Amino acid sequence: MTGPNGLGDLIRDPDEAIRRMDDWAAGFAAKAQRYQAAQEQTERLRLTATSSDGAVSVTVGADGTVTDLTFSNKVKSFPLEELSRQILTTMRRAQAGIADKVAGVMAEQLGDEDRETRGALLDNLRGRFPNPDEPDEQPPVPPAPVPPSPAGGAAAPPAPGTPQAPPRRRTDSDDEDNNPW
């Protein structure tokens, strides 16, 4: 470390050491300003999607939260289930664009800085807000049918293979503290 540009050179020339530390600090300050600008611009992002029939429009922020929800007069005739489906589908379509918008802000403000950090952030956003138009990797498994409860209000027996908890034994301390847990 005592060769060219090593620690020995800094010890021999304190002015050079101070200049290098000032340059390093200025670089950090400039980087902090770029990150602050990226954060502020990201916080202002809004993405809007509209249902294919124009009945529902949803606007979301960069964190995925809904910031605006509007309906056309068409929704007056929609069954509630259809309205719910359209709201959720439209919201997911709006959220699906978040990663690309944030990537654009980061590229503009940060250039090629911190590729690993940016990659991890954008992968997280893509995982949280996937494209709803792309099929899932595996179709959802439908829930098992629930057997009807027997007459008389008795609880239905558990399905075969369902683990059962052993019955809890009552102890004297249960009576003492009157704690139902």
Global structural class? mainly alpha
Which parts are unreliable, with pLDDT below 50 for 5 consecutive residues or more? Answer: 177-181
How would you sum up the major sheet? Answer: 3 strands, antiparallel
Number of strands: 3
Strand order of the largest sheet: 1-2-3
Q: Cα distance, first to last residue?
A: 66 Å
Average pLDDT over all residues: 79
- Compressed to H and E, one letter per element, the order equals HHEEEHHHH
Q: Residue share in helices?
A: 40-55%
The fraction of residues assigned to DSSP E strands is 5-15%
Q: Tally the helices: what do you get?
A: 6
Radius of gyration: 30 Å
Instruction: Identify the overall geometry.
Output: elongated
List keywords for this structure.
181 residues, three-stranded antiparallel beta sheet, single chain, elongated
Question: Nutshell version of this structure?
Answer:
Helix content is 48%, strand content 9%. With 181 residues, the chain is mostly helical. The chain has a three-stranded antiparallel β-sheet, with helices on one face.
Which helices and strands, and how do they pair?
Layout: H1 7-12, H2 14-43, E1 46-50, E2 56-61, E3 66-71, H3 80-96, H4 98-110, H5 115-128, H6 172-177
Antiparallel strand pairs: 1-2, 2-3
Helix pairs in contact: 2-4, 4-5
